[in-house]
Fold this protein.
Amino acid sequence: MTAAPDITDRTTTGPAAAGAGPAVRAAVAAVVDPEIRVVTIADLGILRDVTTDPATGRVTVTITPTYTGCPAMDVIRADIRRALTAAGHPEAEVRTVFAPPWSTDWITAEGRAKLAAAGIAPPGPVRTAGPVAVPLAVRCPRCGAPDTEQISRFGSTACKALWRCRSCREPFDHVKAL
Amino acid sequence: MKPTVDHVLAIADDALITAQRLGEWYAAAPEMEEDVALANIALDQLGAARLLLTYAGELEGAGRDEDALAFLRDDREFRNCLLVELPDADFAVTIVKLLFLSAWQLPLYAALAEGDDERLAAIGAKARKESAYHLDHSSQWTIRLGDGTEESHRRVQAAVDELWPYAHELFAADPAAPVDPAGLRDAWLSTVEGVLAEATLRRPADGWGPAGGRTGVHTEHLSYLLAEMQVLHRAHPGATW
């Protein structure tokens, strides 16, 4: 498992930032993923950092995409700006970084629970060896049965695959381990 | 040492033209799941292309962004290999093209991820994970078609025979590149030969290899592809939605 990203507010000094840190961070962390609306960008590990310049009070948010071509990134950037404007920081900067690359191991325990509750099977741990995937057992998020099968390796968004439960026959989305 | 603009454009254009070709399958693939799969792979390729084109524009220093490079260059300025621009006349051709390309992109991105250039290392580390899925998907289809019916075997073997010569261009030596493509051939052969064997397909003999893409000398197919890809941006400069 890769270490989860640090999303703590690094502001420690400076009058401009005093008291604003946790509120700003909370406002950004509450931004909902536009494609999977049951989880926030913090739950998914997309949110990497929120800093406040102690001198100017200017907020900088750092995010990373799940997939390079994720079409939701523009909406996420706009939603972060909207949240920060509402929190009193209209001049905030949103940076996008690609290294280290996002991993499904960064999805928080709370995020996994929210996904499962919404009928989306959360990812297993990331495989480390070999270019060819070994299918792992995926539990049905509806009935909990382990007897499931993959219908398509690619699903409704870049980060999901389409599966079906052989027990209750329900099709469901599964977030692919990456 | 910074990579050359031409080198970054080469790997960017491979991804961009692949994305455009794969997009042609949307709503026309053999099954609905494959529509979704090929569109997802196209999106990954487009994502990598955008990052690489942006970087190429910065290295060039002439103020061209990803859109200017994608939509306002003519065919002679594109640096993609010929393999990716060939028309996808048959689903088997699409699959074999993707197999050949992803078996090359995966070790390339992996090597870039370990390299000295920070930007290429970040892009490589990101793209290699997606590339592994592309290789897996094209491998599974190659095996299914090759070891399938007489007709599917015949058509995928024809695709392998037709495309094999074009794969040579991927390994043209470029000692100035951060990762010399010539050094990727062993890894590529080992992957592709393994898949072909499992698919009961014959590995063609090495011989003639058409080239020219890396220096801007393309087949006529690229011009038609670019006409379709660029028409909107050229007709309505700066259009967004």
In short: The CA atoms of residues 59 and 92 of chain A lie 5 Å apart. The beta strands of chain A are 47-52, 59-63, 93-96, 120-121, 148-152, 160-165, 171-175. Helices of chain A lie at 21-29, 41-44, 73-86, 109-117. Residues 7-96 of chain A form a domain with the GMP Synthetase; Chain A, domain 3 fold (CATH 3.30.300.130).
